[in-house]
């Protein structure tokens, strides 16, 4: 029982020691290939390495090197300083999701493509010092969600927009030819309002104009028009972001319509579309009325059945009188034949409604019969 109690008490300490040993063993897997005059990253390295130092070589970090780096997905530190890298291509470190430190200082890097740092979600320290970079797009740092240190010392950067780095703690910017005009005002405002520490602030000096060379970029006085420029730029950015979120689909469709309008007239297509829609609606309405309201076509089928008007009845009487007078000249026709002819002449009366209008019925005889 005592043994069990002692085991339970010391079990957390035992597990802590194991975890520390495992972490120590992971950080101790280090490979050092400095000053080997390598032009390519070697492929025969163990896949479980965590620290790879390739400093002072001839590596250019081309497509073949990028493919080899994807094999070492357990890397936490990578040192490529003092090599021959000219361009950081897109997805150069895409498979290094455990990388925490990346050092590519003292290379002739002049271009960093937009998606060069995609996949480095755990990166904490990025060193791009002493290269030949002239301009940096701050959006390229967006994938670096956990970056705490950014070193841009010793490049040719004259202005730099505010980077989208929410966990950044230290930034190094000295050794660049800073242009302290209104274009740099946003960066100064960010450095003074955020919690980011500007390393070696006292030597991060303005290079242009000459009248401001005695100021560092964090304390340089700006003209009043720079403040109005800041307000207008913030308002414009807010408006652009709002439009891009709410009306992106509409804008793209509008652009397509505008491009198409350069090749064909817009009025004919709209007229044709309206004609098709109206035709379909009218056809559907007629079909609906024909199915739901059969009284319409019943009326159309029986439109030729109507009562005789008074003048039409008199016309038929005159014709009947003429016929009887002419028939009296024929000696062979008797009174029975005359009655038959009379009945045939008056057989056109329609009795669909059950009522017969006959002007030859004596109303006095009907009253006597009743």
Automatic annotation (TrEMBL):
Molecular functions per Gene Ontology: signaling receptor activity
Listed InterPro entries: Cys-rich_flank_reg_C (IPR000483), Leu-rich_rpt (IPR001611), Leu-rich_rpt_typical-subtyp (IPR003591), LRR_dom_sf (IPR032675)
UniProt record, GO biological process: positive regulation of non-canonical NF-kappaB signal transduction
Subcellular location: Membrane
Membrane topology: Single-pass type I membrane protein
Signal peptide: 1-24
Spans traversing the lipid bilayer: 270-291
GO CC term, one of those recorded: plasma membrane
Main localization, broad class: membrane
Keywords, sorted A to Z: Glycoprotein, Leucine-rich repeat, Membrane, Repeat, Signal, Transmembrane, Transmembrane helix
Domain LRRCT: 176-227
Oligomer status and interactors: Interacts with TRAF2 and TRAF6.
PANTHER family: LEUCINE-RICH REPEAT-CONTAINING PROTEIN 19 (PTHR31450:SF4), LEUCINE-RICH REPEAT-CONTAINING PROTEIN 19 LRRC19 FAMILY MEMBER (PTHR31450)
Record's function text: Pathogen-recognition receptor which mediates the activation of TRAF2- and TRAF6 NF-kappa-B signaling pathways and induces the expression of pro-inflammatory cytokines. In kidney, prevents infection by uropathogenic bacteria by inducing the production of cytokines, chemokines and antimicrobial substances. In gut, involved in host-microbiota interactions, plays a critical role in promoting the recruitment of immune cells and intestinal inflammation.
Protein name: Leucine-rich repeat-containing protein 19
Organism of this sequence: Castor canadensis
Gene: Lrrc19
């Amino acid at each position: 029982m005592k043994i069990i109690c002692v085991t339970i008490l010391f079990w957390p300490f035992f597990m802590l020691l194991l975890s520390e040993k495992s972490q120590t063993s992971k950080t101790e897997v280090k490979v050092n290939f400095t000053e080997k005059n390598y032009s390519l990253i070697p492929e025969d390295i163990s896949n479980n390495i965590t620290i790879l130092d390739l400093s002072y070589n001839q590596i250019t970090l081309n497509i073949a090197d990028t493919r080899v780096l994807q094999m070492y997905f357990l890397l936490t530190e990578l040192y490529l300083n003092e090599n021959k890298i000219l361009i950081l291509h897109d997805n150069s470190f895409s498979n290094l999701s455990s990388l925490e430190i990346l050092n590519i200082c003292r290379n002739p890097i002049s271009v960093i493509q937009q998606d060069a740092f995609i996949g480095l979600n755990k990166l904490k320290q990025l060193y791009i010092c002493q290269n030949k970079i002239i301009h940096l797009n701050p959006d390229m740092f967006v994938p670096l969600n956990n970056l705490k240190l950014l070193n841009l010392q010793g490049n040719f950067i004259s202005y730099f927009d505010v980077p989208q780095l929410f966990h950044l703690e230290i930034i190094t910017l000295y050794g660049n030819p800073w242009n302290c005009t209104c274009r740099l005002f946003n960066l100064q405002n960010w450095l003074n309002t955020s919690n980011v520490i500007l390393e070696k602030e006292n030597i991060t000096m303005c290079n242009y104009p000459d009248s401001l060379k005695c100021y560092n970029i964090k304390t340089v006085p700006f003209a009043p028009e720079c403040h109005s420029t800041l307000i207008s730029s913030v308002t414009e950015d807010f408006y652009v972001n709002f439009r891009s979120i709410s009306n992106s689909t509409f804008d793209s469709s509008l652009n397509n319509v505008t491009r198409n309008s350069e090749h064909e007239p817009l009025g004919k297509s709209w007229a044709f579309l309206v004609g098709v829609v109206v035709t379909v609606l009218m056809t559907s309405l007629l079909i609906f009325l024909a199915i739901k309201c059969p009284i319409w076509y019943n009326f159309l089928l029986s439109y030729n059945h109507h009562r005789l008007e008074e003048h039409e009845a008199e016309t038929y009487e005159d014709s009947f009188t003429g016929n009887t007078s002419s028939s009296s000249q024929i000696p062979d026709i008797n009174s029975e034949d005359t009655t038959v002819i009379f009945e045939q002449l008056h057989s056109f009366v329609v009795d669909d409604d059950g009522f017969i209008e006959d002007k030859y019925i004596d109303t006095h005889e009907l009253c006597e019969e009743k």
